[in-house]
Specification:
Elements lengths: L2 E6 L3 H12 L4 E7 L2 H11 L3 E5 L7 H11 L4 E5 L3 H13 L3 E4 L9 H17 L26 H4 L1 E6 L3 H9 L8 E6 L6 H11 L3 E4 L10 E4 L5 E7 L2 E7 L11 H11 L4 E5 L8 H9 L3 E5 L9 H7 L5 E3 L4 H18 L1
Parallel strand pairs: 1-2, 1-3, 3-4, 4-5, 6-7, 6-12, 7-9, 8-9, 12-13, 13-14
Antiparallel strand pairs: 10-11
Helix pairs in contact: 3-4, 9-10, 10-11
């Protein structure tokens, strides 16, 4: 059975391009297009699509307002189509919070050699969305009352020696937010690779920094990795861990994509295996594909302790499943429990690691 898609965009040209791309795939078809959310609402009732692509800036009804109502009244997988502007990226981050599964940049209309790669990207995201688990989204406040107390790290020296290394893809922006919002201000330094194009990672980091007790930034390269700080891989480069004397440092690399991704989770995990070894804690979150599995296995072989998000709490159980399948993980847990599991491990084993 083909994946049924409804395309919503106020540009007739964009609707045409998206329709051509989607209909060229053997496993999906456009069952309707709409110039605005009001028309889209009727189309959804008539066609019952598996996936909706939605422009972030729409006439008659704001795309975010429509998305919020849709996810409340008729939850379904939504892929946002975003312009590469600061406003577009900020709206996209908000759309992901409201329940959109993923996003793509608006297609470039001119004929170019990269169009085939772009078509493959859209198709991959629609396939992932069609398999996604749509769940209610919550926006907790850092340190909210009623939250279960997390393990205390107790040893101030541990935070500068230990590192938390995180990888994610589809559904990862919200998983990372939920994970980081539970991190205490004195937690070990955190390096994160989330599959995300250039131009969006800065807004992602800025949004996280406003919500979390720790400081979150887009990695610039050649920065010292500090406790209480998280560094997000920029969309244009691989993020790696490096050493300079006794200090951990960030490093950026604009080399070829790995597993079709730049930034790649495998690249980050392998650098952590090489430079942090037993002082690293690996975390692999929701995402489609297998990026990160091989690198996490190298981390385990180097002495790192690794966690994976469980199937029930993943939007797409791809990357964690692959890491589990190759034997790269030590523990598997639901997303809400993972911060406590990671901090519990650090509290229990951190001092022992420092004595080695």
């Amino acid at each position: 059975m083909k994946i049924k898609v409804v395309v919503v965009d106020d540009s007739a040209l964009i609707r045409s391009v998206m329709t051509e791309i989607i209909n060229s795939q053997p496993d999906m078809e456009v069952v309707g297009t709409a110039p605005d959310p009001l028309v889209a609402r009727e189309l959804i009732k008539q066609t019952n699509p598996h996936v909706l692509t939605l422009d972030v800036e729409m006439p008659k009804m704001d795309g975010l307002d429509f998305l919020e109502k849709l996810m409340r009244l008729r939850p379904m997988p939504v892929v946002m189509v975003s312009s590469l502007t600061e406003r577009g990226s900020e709206i996209t981050m908000r759309a992901l919070e409201l329940g959109a599964v993923d996003f793509v940049q608006k297609p470039k209309i001119s004929i170019q050699t990269g169009m085939r790669d772009y078509a493959d990207l859209i198709a991959d995201k629609i396939r992932a969305a069609a398999k996604a688990r749509i769940r209610a989204r919550t926006l907790p406040q850092a340190g909210a009352e009623g939250a279960a107390p997390l393990p205390q790290l107790r040893n101030p020296l541990m935070s500068s020696e230990k590192l938390i290394i995180v990888g994610a893809s589809t559904g990862g922006t919200e998983a990372i937010r939920e994970f980081l919002m539970q991190m205490p201000s004195d937690c070990p330094g955190i390096l994160i690779t989330q599959h995300m194009p250039e131009g969006f990672t800065r807004s992602f980091a800025k949004r996280l920094d406003s919500l979390c007790r720790i400081s979150v930034c887009e990695a610039q390269g050649n920065e010292r990795v500090l406790p209480g700080h998280a560094y997000i891989a920029p969309g244009h480069s691989h993020l790696l861990l490096a050493r300079s004397g006794a200090n951990y440092m960030t490093k950026l690399d604009t080399g070829e994509p790995v597993n079709r991704h730049r930034p790649s989770v495998d690249v980050l995990f392998r650098s952590a295996a090489q430079h942090a070894g037993k002082n690293a804690v690996g975390v692999i979150l929701t995402g489609m594909g297998k990026d990160g599995a091989a690198g996490m296995l190298e981390m385990k072989a180097a002495g790192a302790y690794n966690f994976a998000q469980d199937e029930a709490s993943c939007v797409v159980f791809g990357m964690p499943r692959e890491a589990i399948a190759v034997g790269a993980t030590h523990e598997v847990g639901a997303l809400p429990a993972l911060p406590g599991m990671v901090l519990g491990y650090l509290a229990q084993h951190g001092m022992r690691a420092l004595r080695v």
